[in-house]
Amino acid sequence: MTTTLLRTAAELHARTRAGRRAVVMTMGALHEGHATLVRTAREIAGPDGEVVVTVFVNPLQFGAGEDLDRYPRTLDADLKIAEEAGADAVFAPSVDEVYPGGEPQVRISAGPMGERLEGATRPGHFDGMLTVVAKLLHLTRPDVACFGQKDAQQLALIRRMVRDLNFGVEIVAVPTVREADGLALSSRNRYLSARERRTALALSAALFAGRDRHAAQEALRARAREVPATQARAEALSAIGESRAAADAHAVAKAAPGNPAAVRVAARQVLDEAVRLDPPLVLDYLALVDPSDFTEIADDFTGEAVLAVAARVGTTRLIDNLPLTFGTLGAAS
User: Fold this and answer.
1) How confident is the model at residue 242 (pLDDT cuts 50, 70, 90)?
2) Nearest in space to 157 (alpha carbons), one of 173, 168, 142
3) DSSP 3-state assignment of 131?
4) Is 34 annotated in the active site?
5) What does the pLDDT look like over 248-290, one tens digit per residue?
6) How would you label 234-267 residue by residue, b for 16+ Cβ within 10 Å and e otherwise?
7) How many other CB atoms are found less than 10 A from the CB of residue 14?
8) What is the pTM assigned to this prediction?
9) Of the listed 13, 31, 34, 125, which one is catalytic?
10) Do residues 29 and 74 make contact, with C-beta atoms less than 8 angstroms apart?
11) pLDDT-derived band of residue 231, with 50, 70 and 90 as boundaries?
12) Interhelix angle for 152-164 vs 125-140, to 10°?
């Protein structure tokens, strides 16, 4: 397959379409995470459809002091990765093509959800993100658009925009791709020195600690419900290494599903230790939120949740998250 480079919307609109068009939006500097998105889009579009990868570094979503100027531009390498993953075209417009009249006066507002977590740290970021996503959806006219779960708040806001404003496009979420050591793939990882990268592993380690604590709690509750006798229940709980819970097996059996507070504590312990590393991890936030609005969940919450973290290592800011399920559906996704 030969991937075609397109610079204008007119070139893209002139292409003949037979099947479904699936779009993957990127800011370039493609890596295996992006390639996974493209391969997913290829599967969705099918042999008769079309996969378009957009490469556009959007100035609207970079705030003062952020890395717009040094954000990597690697179009030749991006073309190769997109081609190998199965893209039919790469749409790499100029700023003038996307914003022909200069910065747009009319923009998409992310609303209250866009002011939380990432939005609180980066004011205006999500307004700029949604504005360019809306523009690119109009310019590329896809049937399906694929986005990664690593940017969980971004994904939630795009889904909300598409639903609230009646965009005729299906949004598909693709799981986060990680290095063998657990670090989530990101274009910003290339900024990390060897020592900084070791510190950065605390982000995924904290999420895994929270996930594992949640899974252990769910296993305890399942075991407690299975054993009818109080003494036998306590022995069963002790057997899986939870002697404190075994001391009050009846309370464990009756407890609300999951325990968000314990998940937060387990994750926070890892992050607190990382503060003492060289170089240290500087935490922006650790949050356990409802993905529908990105507010913190209560201890009696049931349903889908997101455990999210953001931190700086050196001059590089990184984010990561894991989905969790509280309630009858069980442990982590």
Assistant:
1) low
2) 173
3) helix
4) yes
5) 444 444 444 458 999 999 999 999 999 999 999 999 999 999 9
6) bebbeeeebeebbeebeebbebebbbbeebbebb
7) 9
8) 0.86
9) 34
10) yes
11) low
12) 60
